[in-house]
Amino acid sequence: MLNRRYLLILIFTSLILSGCIQNTVPAIDLYTINIPCGIDKPIVKKAAAGTVLKVSIPKSTSSIMSRNILYQKDEYSQNPYAHSNWNDTPNIMLGRVFLSCINKSSIFQSVLPSYSKGKSDFLLESNLMEFYHHINTDGSSEGRVKVEFYLIDLKSGNVISTNEFFSKVSSKTLDAKGGVKALNYATKSIANSLVRWLKSLEKLSPI
Questions:
Q1: d(Cα 37, Cα 32) in Å, to the nearest integer?
Q2: CA angle 115–120–121, rounded 5-degree value
Q3: What local confidence, expressed as pLDDT, does residue 123 receive?
Q4: What is the DSSP letter of 115?
Q5: What is the mean pLDDT of the chain?
């Protein structure tokens, strides 16, 4: 009987302690990249009529492929914000943004994700080279995004054109929330530059 009483006391104490520990751990704030493209009214090229584009998820380093929201204070080191995460990896989020913006531009008849089983004429590959909140020595900061793009003709296997876009947008606050907002607008700038580049290409009909 005595052992049973000690056991009940032990269980009760453990439950109280575990509750106290849980209450002291801050909740994780989740953020996303989801901003309207804001592109001009599309001008559809006749050469692109009937063409289909597939958009691959951008490749990147393992640190960017995580759900950590990264900040950088010097040239060589990056760190994750505590208690703040992306709700998905930047690669996946940016892939969705690029696909959506290209689709709204009406440059191609159809725009598909790379995992689609549908046939396509072109493939857009990309490398996400920079994606972080940069803290400057003067106390200012900005969201920085840099992406390399490769447009490939799937019939011939030739790379039709390549381009690289870099955007930095000032952040109003030196925290994860401010960095996320700046990165959203920097991503919007990259997506709009991508659409303008695709529109400018002379040859967007399959070989």
A1: 15
A2: 135
A3: 97
A4: T
A5: 87
Burial status of residue 26 (CB atoms within 10 A of its CB: 0-12, 13-18, 19 or more): exposed
Task: For residue 19, count other CB atoms closer than 10 A to its CB.
Answer: 10
Whole-structure pTM value: 0.83
Question: How far, in Å, CA of 90 to CA of 67, rounded?
Answer: 7
Tell me how far the alpha carbon of residue 80 is from its chain's centroid.
16
Average pLDDT over residues 109-133: 96
What DSSP element (H or E) covers 167?
A: strand 159-170
**Mean pLDDT throughout 93-116?**
95
pLDDT higher than threshold 70 for residue 159: yes
Task: Assign domain 28-200 to its CATH superfamily.
Answer: ABC-type transport auxiliary lipoprotein component (3.40.50.10610)
Q: How far is CA 140 from CA 52, 131, 134, 174, 183, in A?
A: 43, 17, 9, 8, 15
Output 206 or 189, whichever has higher pLDDT.
Answer: 189
Parallel/antiparallel/unpaired status of strands 141-153 and 122-135? antiparallel
Q: Are 110 and 50 in contact (CB under 8 A)?
A: no
